[in-house]
Write a structure and sequence with these properties.
13 helices, Dehydroquinate synthase-like, alpha domain, globular, binds nicotinamide-adenine-dinucleotide, 355 residues, 11 strands, Rossmann fold
């Protein structure tokens, strides 16, 4: 088991990574409360709830389970309201932690419920997809989608711990593994050219789910994310670079209907667009743009976006959370491993990349 910390003063928390990390969740909860409410969905519960329950039992923690419907289309205000109703029916109180067992949809939604239920209760992230293990479970961004835009309603609310059990990835469908790799590639692109090179050499092993390769990729991803979150918890500056590819990606998800493109697939194609834009706007070398496209493709991710008119792109991206005083801002690369945020992108450059 390896451990990292997200250093946020009195709200600091551990990230435990390794095979069997699920077995530690009971002790993590018991340190805070003799009771918990597990939030999951039927797909994940059928595969991994027994192990979680056993861990809670061993630690003497009583638990209720609330299942939400599976899928991005259910990361909604309506599902949130149903979950809050169940928490009230169960008489969960302000000291009852929620345990989010699932992918990013369960994690983001349970985290948001924890942020607002009785003005805030503790929660733990137990991520079961690669995407959630390398990204959404760390950093305290919680949200639901709105019909008009991804993750538009939410809150910052840090978990009390993150337990990443790499064994959970054995049951993940291949398409979901590829989607998680998009966020892994992101960390190399924005922050660590050496890690990017490592990914180029090890993509086959990652797709084959070799233990050592996956454990390394998850650890390095969480290390980069924890560093950036500790430096800029509320995205007042540097944290925005974690959205490399996401301005285009979120537009793709909203335009095509939540769940049609997986989040990671949209981010994959979005990173290729962002790399091309970087070539035009801040001099990213064409060889590096090609390496990004090749790595995204080698992960089994789409590299071309759906066909949308430029006006539609601009409308969708105009609701991006990085828009500042009406100006679109893009995360671009000056070189592999060095990201910048630019608000001066000309419409002609966007048209050239999106056309
Ligand atoms: P997801 O939660 O929909 O999970 C993908 C699918 O895999 C689901 O059908 C799920 O039931 C299933 N599943 C989960 N674990 C499994 C397992 N071990 N075995 C078999 N099936 C399993 O999708 P995701 O890709 O995990 O998360 C995407 C969401 O994360 C998006 O809503 C995105 O906006 C959000 N996100 C949030 C942040 C953040 O910082 N909060 C960062 C990145 C992404
Ligand atoms: N996934 C972007 C962030 O956590 O800031």
């Amino acid at each position: 088991m390896r451990e990292l910390a997200v250093a946020l003063g009195e709200r600091s928390y551990p990230i435990r990574i390794g095979r069997g990390a699920l077995a530690d969740v009971g002790a993590l909860v018991a340190a805070r409360s003799p009771r918990a409410v597990v939030v999951s969905n039927a797909t994940v519960a059928a595969l991994h709830l027994t192990a979680l329950r056993a861990s809670l039992d061993r630690a003497g923690v009583a638990c209720d389970v609330v299942l939400i419907p599976d899928g991005e289309a259910h990361k909604s205000w309506e599902t949130l309201n149903d979950l809050l109703t169940r928490l009230l029916e169960l008489k969960a109180d302000r000291s009852t932690p929620l345990v989010a067992l699932g992918g990013g949809v369960v994690g983001d939604l349970a985290g948001f419920a924890a942020a607002v239920y009785q003005r805030g209760v503790p929660y733990l992230q137990v991520p079961t997809t690669l995407l959630a293990q390398v990204d959404s479970s760390v950093g305290g961004k919680t949200a639901v989608n709105h019909r008009l835009g991804k993750n538009m309603i939410g809150a910052f609310h840090q978990p009390m711990a993150v337990a990443i059990d790499t064994a959970c990835l054995e049951t993940l469908p291949p398409r979901e593994v590829a989607a998680g790799l998009a966020e892994v590639i992101k960390y190399g692109a924005i922050r660590d050219a050496g890690f990017f090179e490592w990914l180029e050499r090890n993509m086959k092993g990652l797709l084959a789910r070799e233990d050592d390769a996956l454990a390394h990729a998850i650890f390095e991803s969480c290390r980069v994310k924890a560093e950036i979150v500790a430096a800029d918890e509320r995205e007042e500056g540097e944290r925005a670079i974690l959205n490399f590819g996401h301005t285009f990606g979120h537009a793709i998800e909203t335009a095509t209907g939540y769940g049609t493109w997986l989040h990671g697939e949209a981010v994959g194609a979005g990173m290729v667009l962002a790399a091309r834009l970087s070539g035009r706007v801040c001099g990213l070398a064409s060889g590096e743009t090609e390496r990004i496209e090749a790595l995204v493709a080698s992960a089994g991710l789409p590299v071309a976006p759906p066909k949308l008119a430029l006006d539609r792109w601009l409308d969708l991206m105009g609701r991006d959370k990085k828009v500042d005083r009406g100006r679109l801002r893009f995360v671009l690369l000056e070189r592999l491993g060095r990201a910048v945020v630019r608000a001066d992108v000309a419409e002609g450059d966007l048209a050239a990349v999106l056309g």
